[in-house]
Amino acid sequence: MLNDYFDTDRILVIAPLRVADDTWSREIEKWDHLKHLRISKVLGSATARRKALRAEADIYVINRENVEWLVREYGNMWPFGTVVIDELSSFKNHQSKRFRALRRVRPLMKRLIGLTGTPAPNGLIDLWPQVYLLDQGERLGKTITGYRDKYFVPGERDGHVVYKWHEKKEAEQRIYEAISDIVVSMKSEDWLELPERVDRTVSIILNPKARELYKKLERELLLPFQDADVVASTAAVLSNKLLQMASGAVYDEERGVKLIHDAKLDALEDIIEAANGKPVMVFYNFKHSLDRIQKRFPQAQVLRKGKDGNEDIRAWNNDEISLLCLHPKSAGHGLNLQESSCQTIVWYDQIWSLEEYQQANARLYRQGQTRRIVVLRLVAEGTMDEDAVDALERKATGQEALMQAVKARIEGCRVV
Q1: What is the CB neighbour count within 10 angstroms for residue 324?
Q2: Residue ranges of the alpha helices (H) in 279-353?
Q3: Any idea which fold 191-391 has?
């Protein structure tokens, strides 16, 4: 578009912060046909961002948290004819400031391109904001209310607030047909020669004392301790506390940590030993899980922020880190961590978000991977861990249907 068709001039890429800071510039340097492209990183302080915007460049890369600032900075003088959103699903909330800001200047863009591997992590209700940014409401309607009224019926609610929508009969197929001309689904296995990926559940058996404590909190919503109790005041809090206990510890009312068991640490130790010296990647969800992992395994490192994090990525890809602990929210999008000799991903804590789960696994199992990858989920038997895994599998089934419905070969496909 830039140099062959002369179809655009200034291109803006919106990406997660670490991806904006590291991945785009590093990837361009890898490819001979892209090395001539000039990138300006619109990051850092307001002064640094303004300086980057004044620089002569082909591509300007900004983190999504600064989209609102950028729109205020330019207003109706928006200069970017083409906008690429790396991880379009991060704009799935129609009430978010970033969506509203981009919606304001969307008519000033000639083209918007969205990239995501998880377009509907929580169901088709997530699609409207993303498709609206593509076509300004042409296919799924100008408002979220109209979209809901046309394709969904209210489900579970709390008073006037509906927090679950159910699809109307044949709504799924109608939505797929409506967006089929502007979306392309390209699954990696269809286009890339990726090695085998094996997904396994590692069953964790709790000792009798830990199981009794788990059942007591589940039954009575209270675990009394001498210094501070563990209390689950709502269903959501209970779910979170039970997931914590399944992993071996739980926060009390004073944010102290009550130890419950070491079964997952023991399992992780066996996995690390079985890796025979090769690096292992571990995803955690709770801070106390990370603390306990680092205490048992002093070699465990986390991905730091900023330039230190970029150095960590380099060290990991050069096999200088043997055990890398990542949180799916901070390391779930865009990072290229596939150049190490790591073949093992471990999910120490279980999570509810399909988007975070799939994106996190894709840090290692992605283009450029040459080794067989094993994804291990440590699941405590008879606990909320099992419910979380089941929920993800149900969501995955729904999202796979969407991806298959819009799947197309590039030839003859019109993309706007």
Answers
A1: 25
A2: 287-296, 306-317, 328-331
A3: Rossmann fold (3.40.50)
Distance CA(225)–CA(255), nearest Å, equals 13
Site of tokens 């830039």: 2
- Quote the pLDDT of residue 334: 65
Q: Which helix (H) or strand (E) holds 361?
A: helix 354-361
Smallest CA-to-CA distance from 355 within 391, 313, 379 is with 391
The residues near 353 (Cβ < 8 Å, ≥ 6 apart) are 121, 328
Q: What is the pLDDT of residues 67-121, one digit of tens each?
A: 999 999 999 999 999 999 998 988 999 999 999 999 999 999 999 999 987 787 7
How far is it, in rounded angstroms, from Cα 339 to Cα 60?
26
Question: Does 182 have pLDDT greater than 60?
Answer: yes
| Nearest of 70, 78, 13, 2 to residue 36 by alpha carbon | 2
| Residue ranges covered by each domain of the chain | 11-184, 191-391
Residue type, 35: K
- Which contacts of 301-308 are long-range, i.e. CB under 8 A and separated by 24 or more positions? 301/325, 302/326, 303/330, 303/331, 306/21
User: Which residues are within 8 A (CB) of 157 and not within 5 positions of it... i.e. 6 or more apart?
Assistant: 163, 164
Is the per-residue pLDDT at 410 higher than 90? no
Q: Report how far apart, in Å, the C-alpha atoms of 146 and of each of 41, 128, 133, 153, 266 are.
A: 38, 10, 16, 12, 52
Per-residue confidence (pLDDT) for residue 408, from 0 to 100: 47
Burial 31-53 (b: 16+ CB within 10 A, else e): eeeeeebebbbbbeeeeebeebb
Q: b/e string for 362-387 if b means 16 or more Cβ within 10 A?
A: bbbbbeebeeebbbbbbbbeebbbbe
- Euclidean distance between CA atoms 323 and 326, whole angstroms: 10
Please tell me what DSSP assigns to residue 117.
S
Task: Name the CATH superfamily housing domain 11-184.
Answer: Tandem AAA-ATPase domain (3.40.50.10810)
Tell me 42's DSSP state. Answer: E
Over pLDDT 90: what percentage of the chain? 60
